[in-house]
């Protein structure tokens, strides 16, 4: 009997402990969530426009090496030529692997303006800023998170763009700190996502698109890069990375399909030479493909800004 009473007492006690424990931790987690929400609201940097810049467009992907920089670069120049009356700048936000200096054939250190801000370097009518102008070509950039953030802060705030209608930002690959910090610090008019039609790139492109949706940046659409290779000898077409993956992803996500860019040696060679295809062979079908994408982006920008 004593055993039974002890057992019952123990049982009721632990049951009530459990109930109490559960209620307690439930309340705790509610309070914790509320506290976190308040802290996040307080902690989020207030979005501040870049001085002199009317609209910012980011070019992102998720996966690396799918053609963001090439697209951002050619897009800026097309944008420039499509709307001569508008001024366009190009910001390379890839602090670890800046590509814009090579793509735009630019070198050297930016000078400082009277108010101590960096003056962008200009080629083909497009002012550009890149970490590549500030560090040696071959110097490894081995930075911890805080240094990267401070570099991004400098690129966002300490450049004298003068007056720009559009600033195109070439994002680094991924959906990490840099991407988040840029989207939280400046108002962004829209994001262009670049992907090859290959499953492994599309997965990351989808993550990229979802990230922008989450932080309330309008996704202007998806560009499908390297979708078809046409043999220069026999004109046979091969879909090396697949043919329609990005178009299908655009459908699935309910975002606009902005166009197809073929895989073409002319694009690679002219980019490597710093003489982008829209400048060096403006009449080529490759240049026309970039122009088509650029006008689709302009159209989408007007839609989301109105
Ligand atoms: N449509 C294309 N046809 C041929 N070559 C291309 C095409 N698009 C991009 N490339 C080449 O592919 C390589 C990668 O392109 P790019 O640097 O633009 O990619 P990225 O997404 O910016 O890469 P990262 O993630 O490293 O920044 C470059 O050498 C570029 O010249
Ligand atoms: Mg790049």
Short description:
It is found in: Mitochondrion. With 306 residues, this protein is α/β, with parallel strands linked by helices. It contains 10 helices and 9 strands.
Strand and helix layout:
Layout: H1 2-43, E1 53-60, H2 68-82, E2 88-92, H3 100-103, E3 121-123, E4 126-130, H4 145-157, E5 164-170, H5 177-185, E6 190-195, H6 199-214, E7 219-230, E8 237-238, H7 245-253, E9 257-263, H8 265-272, H9 277-280, H10 285-305
Protein architecture, described:
Strands 1, 2, 3, 4, 5, 6, 7, 8 and 9 form a 9-stranded mixed beta sheet that branches. This protein has helices at residues 2-43, 68-82, 100-103, 145-157, 177-185, 199-214, 245-253, 265-272, 277-280, 285-305, and strands at 53-60, 88-92, 121-123, 126-130, 164-170, 190-195, 219-230, 237-238, 257-263. The longest helix is centred in the first third of the chain and has 42 residues, at 2-43. Helix 6 (199-214) links the parallel strand 6 and strand 7. It is α/β, with parallel strands linked by helices. The structure holds adenosine-5'-triphosphate and magnesium ion (MG). Residues 61, 64-70, 94, 97, 99, 173, 225-226, 261, 263-264, 267-268, 271 line the site of adenosine-5'-triphosphate. It holds the Pfam family ParA. Its main location: mitochondrion. It comes from Amphilophus citrinellus (Midas cichlid).
